[in-house]
Specification:
Tetrahydropterin Synthase, Chain A; 4-stranded antiparallel sheet; two-stranded antiparallel ribbon; about 55% helix
Amino acid sequence: MDIASLVGLLSGAAWLAAVLLILFFVIQASRGKPVAKSGLIILIVALVAVALSTISAGLVFIEPDQRGVVISAVSPKGYRDQALEPGLHWIIPFAENVVRYPISRQTYTMSIAPSEGQVSGDDSITARTSDGQEIYVDASVIFAIDPNQVVRVHILWKDRYAEELVRAQSRGVIRDVVSQYRVEEVVTSKRFEMAEALRQTMEKKLNDNGLVLVDFILRNITFSPEYAASVEQKQIAEQTAQQAKFVVEQKRQEAEQARQTAQGSADASVIRAKGEAEARVIEAQAEAQSLELIARALQSNPNLLTYQYITKLSPTVQTMMLPGNNPFILQLPNMIGQSSTTP
């Protein structure tokens, strides 16, 4: 409890004591038992009560989050030019009084939700975009009274600044700024740009009236039911198109994979055929070289062929019997001893 409040309580107690004393003295006098010097006692108590009331009327304590505007009956302007700072102050009793204003941050919310804003029910701002679409905007304004312009706020608005300044200006500024954007821009590419434009405009409006804008919050944007339905249909169509595009891309990849597989099989077949052909060429070359060597050997030794024929026969064969009317295919050399021919 501050000193000014304490003095006020003491003043009230003194006046109560004076009234009780008067009642007591009257009762005693009615019983024939008057109190000596009762009038003097009442006068002293009354003087103390008047003094305390005068001091209480002159003492003013300003909280740290407040400023006080002094309304003065002795000033030509009717007020003091400077607001009272935090602390204990003395004003002219009964000729001046103080109107306190908070300088702490305050929030004014306008929302479609019935219980969120300062106004009960739907208090969202209805605005139209540049392409004629109707939208509903929820916003919050965080502001404070400029401590150096408290007197000006009192003169211009008194305690009506929240409703008649912040609320009214916010709704007008939102409608003006929204009308400069298309509905698609409001919710996508230019939403932050729009919010910044709203903040700058509101800041200037409030500064011109002695308030400081701390923040302007664009809480929510709601569309009309018709536009919301069209947006939903558009999103469904876009999702369908994306799905179709995905299917086409998948088929293309599958076709490319099949083509690459076929190309790989074809390349493998070509490589295999080429290898087989090269193998046959090498085999033929080897066979030709072998025949050439055999031919050269036969030219130098004609009996070599007969020898090879004989070596291929079974080792147990000693005699060959042929029909008498058939000539020999080969002239066999004498083997063991002198061979004879049986007709």
